[in-house]
Predict the structure.
Amino acid sequence: MCGIVGYTGKRAAMPIILEGLKKLEYRGYDSAGISTLHHNELTHVKALGKLIALEEQLAQEPLAGSIGIGHTRWATHGKPSVPNAHPHVVGTTAIVHNGIIENYKSLRTELEAHGSQFLSETDTETVAHLLHVHRRETLLETLFAILPMIRGAYSIAAIDTRDPHTLVCVKQESPLVIGLGKNENFVASDIPALLAHTRDFIFLEDGDVAAITPESVSIYHHGQPVERPIKTVSWSPSAAEKGGYKHFMLKEIHEQPRALRDTLRGKFDGKTLQLSDLALTPQEVASIRRIQLVACGTSWHAGLVGKYYLEQIARIPVEVDIASEYRYRTKVVDSSTLVVPITQSGETADTLAALKDAKREGAKVITVCNVVDSSIVRESHGVLYTNAGPEIGVASTKAFTTQLAALYLLALFIAQEQKRLDSAAIAEHIAQLEALPAVIETVLEREEEYKNFAHTFHDYPNFLFLGRSFNFPIALEGALKLKEISYIHAEGYASGEMKHGPIALIDAQMPVVVVATASAVYDKLVSNVEEVAARDGIVVALVNDADTSWGKKAHTVFRVPEVPEMLSPIVNAVPMQFIAYYVADFKGCDVDQPRNLAKSVTVE
């Protein structure tokens, strides 16, 4: 996820673009750059790190011109560096890009064979070269010519010396809005970048291409002119950064369908899984005999689900360790052991230390991570990126569900390479994974139910969460979420453990949240719930849409669509997030920055 800002008008473009990028820095802070066009010449300045570095450089090297584009980067292809920063300039064209070009490797190979010379590792530069090689009379015509060649989810903005007052852009499954002014117009990947200059916006639809001049905006869909409505927004800048949501956490809950699509995109070519960033040879995959998953907090819960995935799909024994424990215990590790640190930030101190210990013992290390070129990624032999985008809220949501998807992909990949699953079976698993974003969108539509529940139960001092099998870790995660942001005491248990202690807690003041979607142990779990009900516990059940048996068993019933049991944790995590969020919100807690917690724990 990156931030794009563009301007064409009568004023100096650079300060307007820089100001807009500051409003979008939450979307990316690995590197940044601006390009402007002045006297028929393109100039640009790029800097590594946060925007302050670009601002300091521009103070020394200001850019003239009344048309320009800017970008703040969240790296997906290529580590953070000045060459990999946007804009990318090839010939007479400068472009910025948000998203992923799925087929950039094959395009790059073709372009290099015809003489194109690349300066970066990014997928974005491929588009810049395509615009140069397939040059037409205007930049707009050139963009139309190359769009059928590229696949993926992207938004692109470009300027060219051939059209010195025209900014062109395209939106495909990646956000892009046009801001309307008087004798000036704007483009950005999010509204807050432009609120200082306009409240009138056009929201582009997937497949829209726009040509923007100071006096006009022309929009095309599949090559034909179209009209899009102009909408006036009344958000304050701070609220708009959250996309109109009250908190970043709520915004990030709603971003999960997009985050999952981005995590899955480009990983399957129709026949085989392609996970080249793992950097594992076929021989190395074949030699894996044991797997150790190492993580902290929510990522550890993802590892617990991952154990089920890897053992059931890849048929390899798996251990799951809390990183702070792993680093201080005697480890049985050798060259046939695959160690998988799981981390959102890639900077967690205990996880990093555990990784280094495993490497010293001779293990192969593959990290599941959300941050490109983070410390843990750099220390690893390979990586599986989650592509969730920046997660601002301290309580992890979209990073968790994308970690689950990534671990599922890892299990499939190992099974594929070890010949445990054929291509037809892999394709069936991938199809089921790719259906999940639409299922989660259905869950998100039922948000009001969780809000109503929280209004009733936010003053209860204790909660218990129960689950079995694949959804036992979801019970743990539900309890953790509630503790983190509402400060309510909550515990998660495997429901089969009820009689071994937790049942002593049950009384008429104890809400018990039960993850009871379809599973091989559904009947066993129902028996555990009967034990709760017999002791007057307040049963709150999460069940599938078709399950009508809970009317007398439960005080509250939440429903989700049924999916294959192995994938149900990805869907069932969302209701747990909603329960925690709305309970905390009704209690008046600081949802995005809960007390005593930090987003990334970089000290032991």
